[in-house]
Amino acid sequence: MQAPLARLKRPSALYRMLGDRVFVVVVTLLALGIVALSLGLGYYLYLGGAQAIERFGFWGFLTGTTWDPALKEEFGAWPYLVGTLLTSFCALFLSLFPAIAAAIYAAEYAPKWLVGIINYLVDLMAAVPSVVYGIWGIFVLAPFLRENLFLPAYLWTAEHAPGILPYLGNPSGYGFFTAVVILASMIIPYTTALARDAISLVPQAQREAAYALGATRWEVMRLAMLPYARGGILAGVILALGRALGETMAVAMVIGNTNIMLKLLGIPLLYPLFGPATTMPSVIALEFKEAVTDIHLSSLIALGFYLFLVAFVVNLLASYLINVFKVGGQRA
Amino acid sequence: MIRPEVKTTSGNVHEELPLRMETRGLSVFYGKKAGVREVSLPIYNNRVTALIGPSGCGKTTFLRALNRMHDLTPIARVTGEALLDGQNIYERGVDPVEIRRRVGMVFQKPNPFPTLSVYDNVVSGLKLVGIRHKGLLDEAVERSLTQAALWDEVKDRLRAPSMSLSGGQQQRLCIARALAVQPEVLLMDEPTSALDPISTQSIEDLMSELKKHVTIVIVTHNMQQAARVSDFTGYFLTGELVEFGPTNQIFTNPKDPRTEAYITGRFG
Ligand SMILES: Nc1ncnc2c1ncn2[C@@H]1O[C@H](COP(=O)(O)OP(=O)(O)O)[C@@H](O)[C@H]1O
Ligand SMILES: [Mg+2]
C-alpha cells in the first residue's frame, strides 16, 4: 500500500495555495448567498405587502379580524394567524407522544429487522408529498372522523349539553380537527426521526450508569437516555413545528377555509373544534390567483411576510432552547 | 450455605474469612471467542480485591460478569457460576435488576448524569426504588458523599450541575451515587485511570474507610495502586486467572513464574 501513495506527485505549492483560496472564496460566497437570500426574501415580502401594511398599520393588519376583498376591501391577518398557530401547536401536541414513543421503540426495543422497516417507513412518510396527505384526508380521514367521532360527539352534545354546540361547530368532516390530525400525521416522521437519532446517540456509558444502579429498561430510558437526548428531541419537535406552520396543500384541502372565529372573553381566539377554519398558507394559496385588486394582492403578500416573521421568531426561540437544553459538547 | 471450595494458590489460610461473592468456573464468551475462561475466585466480605494483568486480559470482562452487565451486550454469553451470598446470580429466575442494586459499579470514565444536579445524581438510585422522603434522601446524600470523600467540597453546591465538578470530583460523585443505594459489593473498573494524581490519591485514600461498609473489587492496571489499596489480588493473563492470594504474598512471593515476571517486570 505504501508504493502507490509514494508515487503520487504532490501538487505544486502554487496550485495548493490557489486551490485553498478558491475554496475559501466559494464557500464564503455560498454562505453569504444564503444570508442574502433569506434577507432578500423577507425584504421583498415586505415590499409586496407594504401597501396593505401601510394602509392598515403593522399592528392593525396583524390584529384586524375582517377579510373582505369584495365589498369593504378591508384586510386583517388575525384569523389566519390564529388558525396557523392553533392548528400547528395542536398538531405538535397530538404528534408528540406517538412520535417519541415510536422513537423510543425504534431506538431501544424493536428487534433489528423491525428497526429497518420502521426507519424505512418513517422516511417514506416524510417524503410523501403533502397533496397526497390531502387526498387521503379528503377521501379517508374526513369521512372516517365524521362518522366515528364528529357525528356521535355532536349528537351526544346536542342531547346533553346543547350550550357548547357552537364550540363543536359543523361536523361535516372538513375543518379544524381534521386539519390538525392531518398535520400531526405529516410531522410525526420528522419528530420520530430526529428523536430516534438523538436517543441512539446517547453514549453507552450513560445507559450503563443507569443499569448499574439497578434501573429497569424503562427507568434507563427515563433516567439516562431521554434527559441526555432532550436537545435532539427538541430539535425534532421544532423542525416539525416549522413544517406544520408552513404546511399548505394538505391543510387547505381539509380545513374548510372559513375565517369565522369564536370569541373567548370577547376576543376572537378560537375556531370550532370540528367546524371549518383557515390558516395563512392556505388562504394565500387559495386566493392568490383570484386576487384582482392591488390591495387584496398586497394583503396576501403581507400575510406571507407575517408568516415569515412567525417562522423567524420560532426558529430563533428554537435555537435558544436547543442551546439551553442540549447536553453534548460539554465536558464529559 | 454451601461450603465454598476456595482453590487459591495461598492454600486455605483465609478459609475463616466470610465470602461475599465467589465465581466457579466462570467463562464469558464474545461470540465464539472467550473473554475470560474458567475463573474461580473468592471475594471476601469487607475486603478489597484487586484484579491486575496486562491490557486485554479480561479484567473488565470478569468484573462485568459479577453484576450481570453482560446481559446488555447481545453477543456476550456467560457460563459457570457467580455466587452472591451463596446464590448463583445466573440461575434461572434471578432478576438482574435486583442483582445490580446489590452489586454496584463505578466505571473507568466518570459518567454522572449530565442533566442532573450533584444532589439528584446521588439520589437517582434511591428514587428508582421509590424512596421520595426528603429527610431520608438528604441523609443518604450526606452519608454517601462523605463516604466518597466529596462532601466537604460540594456541600455548599449540592444543586449545582454535576458537570460543573472537576473530573476527579465527578468520579467521586459516581462512587457516591453507587454507594447511596447501600450495595453489598462495589465493582470499580480502573476508577482512577482517567484522573490526575491528586484525585487518584483521594480515591485511594477513601477505599480503606469504604471497605468497612462494602466489599470492593477493583480493576487496576497500576500495580502500585493494587499493592496500596487491596487485601487480595488476582492476576489475569489472556483470559485466565493465573494466581490469586493475599496482596502481600502476590507481590512479595508469587507462586507462579508468570506472575513473578509481570510483577518484577512492572516494578522493575
Ligand atoms: N464487547 C466486546 N465484544 C467483543 N470482544 C470484546 C468485547 N469486550 C471485550 N472484548 C475482548 O475480550 C478480551 C478481554 O477484554 P477486557 O475484559 O476489556 O480486558 P481488560 O479489561 O483486561 O483490558 C479482549 O480480547 C477484548 O478484545
Ligand atoms: Mg478494562
Automatic annotation (TrEMBL), chain A:
GO biological-process terms attached to the record: phosphate ion transport
Transmembrane annotation, as ranges: 21-46, 77-105, 117-145, 174-195, 231-255, 267-288, 300-322
Gene Ontology molecular-function annotations: phosphate transmembrane transporter activity
Major localisation: membrane
CDD domains named in the record: TM_PBP2
Protein topology in the membrane: Multi-pass membrane protein
Entry keyword Transmembrane helix: yes
Pfam family, one: BPD_transp_1
GO cellular component: plasma membrane
Keywords from the UniProt entry: Cell membrane, Membrane, Phosphate transport, Transmembrane, Transmembrane helix, Transport
Record-annotated ABC transmembrane type-1 domain positions: 81-318
Keyword Cell inner membrane found: no
Location in the cell: Cell membrane
InterPro entries: MetI-like (IPR000515), MetI-like_sf (IPR035906), Phosphate_PstC (IPR011864), Phosphate_Transport_Permease (IPR051124)
Top-level taxon of the source organism: Bacteria
Similarity comment: Belongs to the binding-protein-dependent transport system permease family. CysTW subfamily.
Function as written in the Swiss-Prot or TrEMBL entry: Part of the binding-protein-dependent transport system for phosphate; probably responsible for the translocation of the substrate across the membrane.
NCBIfam families (UniProt xref): phosphate_pstC
Alphabetized PANTHER family for the sequence: PHOSPHATE TRANSPORT SYSTEM PERMEASE PROTEIN PST, PHOSPHATE TRANSPORT SYSTEM PERMEASE PROTEIN PSTC
Protein name: Phosphate transport system permease protein
Organism of derivation: Calidithermus roseus
From TrEMBL, chain B:
EC number, as in UniProt: 3.6.3.27
Spans through the membrane: none
Pfam families: ABC_tran
Gene3D superfamilies: P-loop containing nucleotide triphosphate hydrolases
Keyword Plastid: no
Keywords: ATP-binding, Hydrolase, Nucleotide-binding, Transport
Domain of life of the organism encoding this protein: Bacteria
Molecular functions per Gene Ontology: ATP binding; ATP hydrolysis activity; phosphate transmembrane transporter activity
Protein name: Phosphate import ATP-binding protein PstB 3
Lineage per the UniProt record: Bacteria, Thermotogati, Deinococcota, Deinococci, Thermales
Gene expressing this chain: pstB3
